[in-house]
Amino acid sequence: MPLFILVQTDFQQVGETQFVITIPEADNINHIVVFLTGLQQFPAGLAGLVYFSWPNPNAPPQWQMLGHISNEKPSAIFKISNLKKKPMDGTSTTVIFDQQMSHNAQIGISVEPIFNVKEENPVNNLRTVVETSHKVLQHFLNYVTSFALTPSQIPSDSTDMLVPLSRIQNWYSNVERRLIQNPDFWWS
What we know:
Elements: E1 12-15, E2 18-23, E3 31-35, E4 46-53, E5 64-69, E6 75-79, H1 81-84, E7 105-113, H2 123-145, H3 165-181
Antiparallel strand pairs: 1-2, 2-7, 3-6, 4-5, 4-7
């Protein structure tokens, strides 16, 4: 049964343009919705970058950018359930919101010039591209290796073209390395 939490609007200002709210029982939440209430818009030329932080009792919050809201885009839905299952991999930011350690999940909003947020590449999208590419590569390697034959198993009258498995494994390693270095290399 889905867990619904009432709308929370009690953001605490923790910096000149930074606001944080605590999310109770976040372990049971799959998605969060962030929206402008209609009571107040962003000042002209500004928008809010939306960040999320899972609790870590032994470290300061690690903030993951989810996306943004603005007067032109006054609401957004973010899937957070997949964020808690993944280790931090350098795509998070530690010191965005000046605050102490927290034992609760939190949403942070950083109000910034709109030109900073128009074309942002949220962590979710980058991870999705990297993970999907990796899974496709792994699936292809598994598929091809399922047909592998030893030299003694190859019929002498075969007319099939053969590709050494080592060549495919080498290709796989090269593509995987390039993907780690630059997730956008597919489109280069």
